[in-house]
């Protein structure tokens, strides 16, 4: 259970660490409205992680109970991780993200976080992919308590990375270019390694 909490925390943290609309919004809210507002925004985003993870678990459990679908998805996962590795590698070559492009409406930061998190269409597929990957290596359990620990870890991992973006907003604003390059290069290597390990497990 504690291992699943750890996986939930690490995967959600790593999945949100590279500059995107969600964390760039946290950064800009912190710069414009202060750290307290940024924390409210992070809490709003994190709340939506709960239903996203639960839906992902239900979908993945159904898939796991159908070996043909699971086998196909495991093979497709190799292609996805290779594609992600290539994507992050290309992203690592790009320059600094223009934070001014992120628009902040004058509304409650909590509601902003909830709204943007709901609109984040990658949430459920991301957690489904994470759960499938863990299940392939026999590291996931679908019992209620284990799922709760994984969900809690995912919520806290998401909140913590957004909290850090808000806390160190000024530093990140100055170093976004190098930060983006380094993180994307690391993620490119990690996703590439996952693709290799998955291939080895399935075919060798």
From TrEMBL:
Q: Which UniProt keywords apply?
A: Membrane, Transmembrane, Transmembrane helix
Q: Where are the transmembrane segments?
A: 6-29, 41-63, 69-89, 110-132, 144-165, 185-203
The superkingdom listed in its UniProt entry is: Bacteria
Transmembrane listed as a keyword: yes
Tell me the protein's name. Answer: Glutamate dehydrogenase
Provide the taxonomic classification: Bacteria, Pseudomonadati, Bacteroidota, Flavobacteriia, Flavobacteriales
């Amino acid at each position: 259970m504690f291992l699943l909490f750890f996986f939930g925390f690490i995967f959600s943290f790593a999945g949100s660490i590279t500059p995107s609309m969600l964390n760039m919004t946290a950064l800009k809210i912190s710069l414009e409205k202060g750290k307290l507002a940024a924390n409210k925004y992070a809490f709003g985003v994190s709340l939506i992680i709960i239903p996203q993870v639960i839906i992902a678990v239900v979908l993945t459990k159904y898939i796991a109970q159908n070996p043909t679908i699971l086998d196909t998805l495991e093979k497709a996962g190799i292609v996805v991780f290779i594609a992600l590795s290539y994507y992050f590698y290309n992203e690592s070559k790009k320059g600094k993200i223009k934070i001014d492009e992120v628009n902040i409406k004058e509304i409650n930061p909590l509601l902003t976080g909830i709204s943007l998190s709901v609109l984040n269409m990658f949430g459920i597929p991301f957690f489904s992919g994470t759960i499938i990957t863990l299940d392939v290596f026999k590291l996931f359990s679908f019992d209620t308590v284990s799922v709760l620990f994984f969900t809690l870890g995912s919520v806290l991992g998401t909140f913590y990375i957004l909290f850090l973006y808000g806390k160190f907003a000024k530093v990140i604003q100055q170093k976004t270019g190098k930060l983006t390059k380094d993180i994307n290069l690391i993620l490119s290597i990690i996703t590439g390694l996952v693709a290799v390990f998955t291939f080895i497990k399935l075919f060798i």
